[in-house]
Amino acid sequence: MTNSESMPRTAVPAGIVDPVASARAELKAALAAIEVKGNLPRRLEKASTRAAAKARVFADRNPIGAIAAAVGVAAAVGGAVWAIARVISR
């Protein structure tokens, strides 16, 4: 693995002497950072994948707790839907 492969895309490599190359590297890193920050669907996908993995681990370690959590979430969502429907119907 080379140094450029181990660095994140949003980092500027150290040791660039040429001002033009340095400016290009900074621009490339800034654009990559904007892409990472602004790509909401990709960020949501990664977050949901992490949450699903954590939920699986939790369910494997504590199945009763996972069932209780699922029932609690279902009750909360149902209550929210009921409350919204009641507000809309008035």
UniProtKB/TrEMBL annotation:
- According to the record, the segments passing through the membrane are 64-85
Keywords for the protein's UniProt record, in alphabetical order: Membrane, Transmembrane, Transmembrane helix
Q: What is this protein called?
A: DUF3618 domain-containing protein
Lineage, top ranks: Bacteria, Bacillati, Actinomycetota, Actinomycetes, Micrococcales
